[in-house]
Amino acid sequence: MAQTSMFHGDLVSSSRILYTPSAFARTSLIHLQEIGRLEAKQPHTSKRDHLMSFLFFIVLTGSGTLEYHETVHRLQAGDCVFLDCRSPYSHQTSENLWQLKWIHFYGPNMADIYDKYTERGGRTAFHPVSLHPYEQLLDDLYQTADSSDYIRDMRIYEKITGLLTLLMEESWHPENRNLSAKKQNLLLVKEYLDTHFHEKILLDQLAETFYINKYYLTRVFREQFGLSISNYLLQLRVTRAKQLLRFTDRTIESIGAECGMEDGNYFARMFRRVEGMSPSQFRRSWVNNPRQ
Length: 292
Fold this sequence. Notes:
Layout: E1 2-8, E2 12-19, H1 23-28, E3 31-40, E4 45-48, E5 54-61, E6 63-68, E7 71-76, E8 80-84, E9 89-93, E10 99-106, H2 110-119, E11 125-126, H3 132-145, H4 152-171, H5 181-196, H6 203-209, H7 214-225, H8 229-247, H9 252-258, H10 264-275, H11 279-285
Antiparallel strand pairs: 1-2, 2-3, 3-10, 4-9, 5-8, 5-10, 6-7, 6-9, 8-11
């Protein structure tokens, strides 16, 4: 259920949709709460605290400030903001009155998604190269919320996840960062793992090869790529094993050995940890459709 609201007051003029998702969407999907556009008519401050919502907004014109997590961000036209409204925040237009487009949304896994965004280096306020994809998504979301589409909640979910994908892409641009030599070396470490995962790899060996302290390497690799070195290696090895299990008739033992896990019991245990089944069960589950 959606309710479009037009408001013209002393402080702002706005057009917004207040959205009530279905019970299914509320419990299972990332869902819309509110979306709209406003034009400030006088300088003013908006404050919120402990709101079960996540907010994304675009500064279309004008300027202002955002206070969030004890940091003041100065905002201007072309800036975007993404924040967790469970924490207190306030934003204020300057004398150069701003126009904003915004969306409030929530979902059962949004806290984890936002944590991943910040873990990858995502900023509360940022200035993308182009606003167009963000603004287009907000416009599409507004139109979808205002429609009578019988699968509207699913279409809204699709578009919000598209917005989150854009935000995740924005949050991780190591090629544009002023990385230290050691952090640059971590990209080389990852490339080394990508091509040598089938070999026996020890942390001490990696640290020595790339002239990085092993404790620093362990900590910063996880920060930069979201996985420990051992779990990243395991993902590479299991992915290669799945390919060989599906598309060759080789024995499970030889597949494990080729993927860097020569002990058959260890290979089976690690494979089960990732896939929830043994290598032989995985192979059998795909045997009826081996090329799909």
